[in-house]
Automatic annotation (TrEMBL):
It comes from the Eukaryota. The lineage of its organism: Eukaryota, Fungi, Dikarya, Basidiomycota, Agaricomycotina. This is Nucleotidyltransferase.
Length: 571
């Protein structure tokens, strides 16, 4: 069912073989549509939310989660997910989401008799379930200790054995402790106690994902405040917990404290989480005006934490404020734009304006599109379109979809493709291929904007100058119209790598960020080597290595193979 062996160095124009992942049964794909909205069916998971003990922002967050998932199902006709639907009447629900943890208090909202017939879970169950696209094991999120058994029994993930990989069965827990949908089994040689995250197995969604989400709020706030060292400590702690295969409980707490990078402060927070199900500091941050404003402002492509803080100091609190600040209409219609790169989505040339402001203006107008995640089928469709165009310019290129897609994400924020031109005697023969492809895609109105374009340079092992063996284009892409639905603007990163840096580029751009960071650190500290996307060399004599496969890179670095779906060391 799962691909156990690492990919060989063999070339393929479609390296992301579907056989890597289990086939999903037809049952999971049955969605019917009426009046533009998917109708509920047997597969729809009906959710009732008890609002008591939830603050207003959490209530709206949970409602929004469900509504957004329904909207995205419609937009993408996603076939990989189960749909969640709200029910006002708890009697009609499969799952009751509640923060109430005491029987007496619960009985003010639901009779005990009814509660015993449902799965009663904490709000994090909904967050994790929507994120992964099918119900997480309810027992792990049981709201009431007394109803743990009933919650497990009534959980709507009952058919795990015959369909999606599922962590609710003891067998699957024992073998992988994985809650994520698309991933390889954890090989026994990858120990969760390993110091470097590139030597551990990190699933996309782990068994302590609710704890991870809490820690991520604190990490993100440190990053937004420019406290990078502190943010990195949280990032490392998160990566360590991500690979820990047991649920954090009073019983496992002692072992958790022995994990790499789990210092006193982090352990204190884990302990708070074990006792209360939340981390007070994370809750406080998440509801603060400053955090909400900085987080919202940085969702706009091109605005980093430092700019966001400056904007905040100028009074910007919301996207709407930002739109007034940059004088952009809030209709989110990207076709009204004056783009800095000279074309609208329909290919009409338009005038250039003041460059420093324009990228943010473009990003602001495109933000609604960028917020819509890209389902795997669309990622593959984009890859096919790009490679068809490339073939017409330069036959014989090989390629791989990397980034979150390759790590098993059901939905990505952007599409990352690494492309390798055929071997050439002279670098000049393949120089500029990236720019040529982008121009061709632009001429066909497939690429609407180019945020960054850089070219090949000769490999410079000393890195004295800013040379690169990669050509890169960071673009905005729209699929050709298909007559059925409105096409969404997508971010597309194209990375051209010369044959000698193809496999390092694939590892670098597959990520995750933390996995890559630790790979570089491992190479430097443990092996006296320099690794990054553009190549691999030995530090003391600058000897260059030419890996023939991804596995070859791991071998040269003296590391055990880690399947891409187990490289999710970030939250
Ligand atoms: P992304 O930012 O695309 O993230 O970077 P992602 O993991 O694919 O997830 P999405 O897109 O948000 O769904 C992919 C990987 O590429 C590397 C990073 O290691 C990252 O993990 N990367 C990204 C670079 O090496 N350089 C860059 O400039 C950007
Ligand atoms: Mg990506």
């Amino acid at each position: 069912m799962h691909k156990r062996e690492p990919p060989s160095g063999e070339e393929s124009s479609r390296s992301n073989s579907p056989s890597l992942y289990p086939e999903r049964p037809a049952k999971r794909t049955r969605l019917s549509f009426s009046n533009g909205w998917p109708e509920s069916n047997d597969e729809t998971i009906k959710v009732h939310i008890i609002q008591a003990k939830l603050d207003a922002s959490t209530i709206s967050e949970l409602f929004f989660l469900i509504e957004r998932q329904r909207a995205e199902q419609l937009a993408a006709s996603s076939s990989l997910k189960r749909m969640f639907e709200l029910r006002n009447d708890p009697l009609e629900a499969d799952v009751i989401v509640t923060a109430v943890r005491m029987r007496k208090r619960l009985e003010r909202h639901v009779s005990w008799d009814l509660a015993q017939q449902k799965a009663l879970v904490l709000p994090q169950w909904l967050r994790n379930s929507v994120k992964q696209g099918y119900p997480a094991p309810c027992a792990d999120y049981a709201a009431l200790r007394e109803l743990h058994g009933e919650t497990e029994e009534n959980c709507p993930d009952e058919e795990c054995g015959t369909s999606l990989p599922c962590a609710s069965t003891p067998q699957s827990r024992a073998t992988s402790a994985i809650v994520g949908p698309l991933q390889a089994p954890v090989p026994p040689n990858l120990k969760y106690t390993a110091h470097y995250s590139c030597a551990r197995a990190c699933p996309l969604v782990c068994i302590n994902q609710d704890l991870i989400e809490e820690l991520e709020v604190i990490r993100r706030s440190r990053e937004l405040e420019g406290l990078d060292r502190n943010a990195l400590s949280y990032e490392r702690g998160i990566a360590a917990i991500k690979s820990y295969p047991k649920r954090v409980t009073p019983e496992t707490f002692h072992e958790v404290t022995t994990l790499p990078y789990l210092g006193e402060k982090l352990c204190f927070k884990v302990n708070e989480f074990i006792k209360t199900g939340t981390i007070p500091e994370a809750r406080e941050i998440a509801t603060s005006e400053r955090y909400r404003a900085l987080a919202a402002i940085t969702t706009v492509y091109g605005i980093g934490p430092a700019t966001a803080r400056t904007l905040y100091d100028k009074g910007v609190r919301t996207i709407e404020h930002l739109e007034s600040y940059y004088d952009v209409s809030s209709d989110g219609d990207a076709s009204n734009l004056d783009t800095f790169d000279a074309v609208t989505p329909n290919g009409r040339p338009i005038p250039q304006q003041d460059p420093p402001d324009l990228p943010i203006k473009v990003a602001l107008a495109l933000r609604k599109d960028f917020e819509i995640k890209i389902p795997r089928a669309e990622v593959e469709e984009m890859h096919d379109v790009v490679m068809r165009e490339l073939f017409a310019i330069q036959p014989g290129c090989k390629s791989m979809i990397v980034g979150g897609y390759r790590r098993g994400k059901l939905e990505s924020n952007d599409v990352d493709i690494v492309i390798c031109p055929p071997k050439a005697e002279d670098i000049d023969e393949v120089k500029g291929l990236c720019a040529k492809l982008v121009k061709c895609l632009h001429d066909k109105a497939l690429v609407t904007n180019v945020m960054h374009l850089s070219g090949f340079h000769t490999h410079d092992p000393f890195r004295l100058r800013n040379f690169d063996s990669l050509e890169k284009a960071l673009t905005v892409f729209v699929l050709p119209p298909d007559g059925k639905r409105k096409r969404v603007h997508r971010r597309l990163d194209l990375i051209f790598a010369l044959p000698e840096s193809y496999w390092t580029a694939i590892i670098g751009w597959t990520g995750s960020k933390m996995f890559q960071r630790d790979l570089r650190l491992w190479a430097k500290v443990e092996k006296g080597m320099k690794f990054d996307s553009s190549g691999l060399n030995r530090r003391y004599d600058s000897k260059l290595f030419y890996p023939k496969s991804e596995k070859d890179v791991f071998d040269i670095l003296g590391l055990d193979w880690v399947d891409p779906t187990l490289r999710n060391a970030d939250a």
